[in-house]
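Lab notebook page, bench 4
Experiment: in silico fold of construct C2
Operator: M.H.
Input chain length: 79 residues
Purpose: comparison with the prior construct
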Amino acid sequence: MPACSFCKKQYTEPRGLTIFTFDGKSIHYCSSKCKRNAKLKRDPKKTNWVKKDPDYKKKIERSPKKKGKRVLNTKSNKK
């Protein structure tokens, strides 16, 4: 069973579309929706309907958020 090159979903053989490039690579698409989005050079990570990596949320939560220094405007700071 081939996997879609855009959404990485496994699909059965009679469905989908397979494109062979001149350099010998094969590109598999499970639907025309995936083909159009790949043609428009969209990022599969940013589309809502593509299955995300299960650890994707954990990676986002673990990343530290940088906070800048906060300066309060008081009478002593103003000159």
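Observations: The CA atoms of residues 20 and 31 lie 16 Å apart. The two ends are 72 Å apart (CA to CA).
Next step: discuss at group meeting.
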